[in-house]
Amino acid sequence: QVQLVESGGGLVQAGGSLRLSCVASGRTFSSYTVTWFRQAPGKEREFVATVSWPGSSLYYADSVKGRFTISRDNAKNTVYLQMHSLKPEDTAVYYCAATRGCSASGCRTVYEYAYWGQGTQVTVSS
After folding, report:
1. I need a surface site. Which of 18, 83, 105, 110 has the fewest CB within 10 A?
2. Which one-letter DSSP state was computed for residue 31?
3. 107-122 tens-digit pLDDT
4. Where does the pLDDT of residue 29 fall: very low under 50, low under 70, confident under 90, or very high at 90 and above?
């Protein structure tokens, strides 16, 4: 079992930055792919960014490429999502999720993940 806890969300103006954290407990992140998803009101949960174990492969949704950076600190069992140049359309609840056994291109659908955090709200005002 892996327990995930997100933090770092908040209210920010358009163009601002936030850094989200996802801390694992229970079992370590060893061999787990970790991914950030987000869900805006009335919309389906969507893929944002993913990082493989131990951190050599990174993939991003086109909508955040060049603005968001995913990274992991395995010694701290923590995955980060650094977000710059935020837009109102980035407003959503952001979730981290963990799984194992992904292909080389990573696991990018919600159905591939057994472990989820509770989410952290990000609100970007215009």
Report:
1. 105
2. T
3. 999 999 999 999 999 9
4. confident
